Amino acid sequence: MYAGIMTKKQAGAMRKALGRLEMEHGVAACEDVPCEITYQWAYPNAWAAVNYMAIRGMDRYGFVKDARRLARKYLDSNVAQFKETGVLWEKYNALTGRNDAAAEYATPGDFMGWTAGTVLFCMDYLTEEHSESVTTRARLMSQGSVGTASTICHEYATPASGHCSPVRSLS
């Protein structure tokens, strides 16, 4: 779906199957299947790239409500973990929303690569006035690239709801 090569019928079938991977806190990389070894892409791990492609794919085929729901889940989970730990994580658990993802190695924190990029994408995507959010992000990035996504999460998290506020609402 992300690449736009499916027919509408195929995309509809993928949408119906979304429930097999969509969890309370995002899209898991794979279904829960028995495996002797727990690998980094194992269930219920949620990765930025998987969530990004799911959001973009749903949106591309007109399933905007689904795309926005997935973006909100991804963003909320990352903001909550950031507020608790002070870092963005490489992957997280799609069932718990925490950084207790299973893998054959310790999960690295302070992951300013694709996690930060996907957090910023979700913030932009959930903002009604995209151009203003891009301007705000550019302003923050010009202040220094280190901690840009962290700065955004700190400045825009609303404690009452746990949601990251849309960037457009800030002056």
Give the SSE layout.
Blueprint (H helix, E strand, L loop, with lengths): L7 H10 L4 E2 L2 E2 L17 E3 H13 L3 H22 L5 E3 L20 H13 L3 H13 L5 H9 L15
Antiparallel strand pairs: 1-2, 3-4
Helix pairs in contact: 2-3, 2-4, 3-4, 4-5, 4-6
Highlighted features:
single chain, about 170 residues, mainly alpha, two-stranded antiparallel ribbon, 6 helices, 4 strands, about 5% strand, globular, disordered C terminus
Describe the fold and architecture.
It is a single chain. With 171 residues, the protein is mostly helical. Helix content is 47%, strand content 6%. The strands form two sheets. Strands 1-2 form a two-stranded antiparallel sheet. It has a two-stranded antiparallel sheet with strand order 3-4. A hairpin with a 2-residue loop joins strand 1 (22-23) and strand 2. The longest helix is centred in the middle third of the chain and has 22 residues, at 64-85. The radius of gyration is 16 Å and the shape is globular. Residues 129-136, 138-148 and 154-171 have low confidence and may be disordered.
Summarize the structure.
The chain has 171 residues and is mostly helical. It is built from 6 helices and 4 strands.
Number of strands: 4
Round the Cα radius of gyration to an integer and report it.
16 Å
The helical percent reads: 40-55%
Topology pattern, helix = H, strand = E? HEEEHHEHHH
Please give the count of helices: 6
The percentage of residues in β strands lies in 5-15%
Mean pLDDT: 78
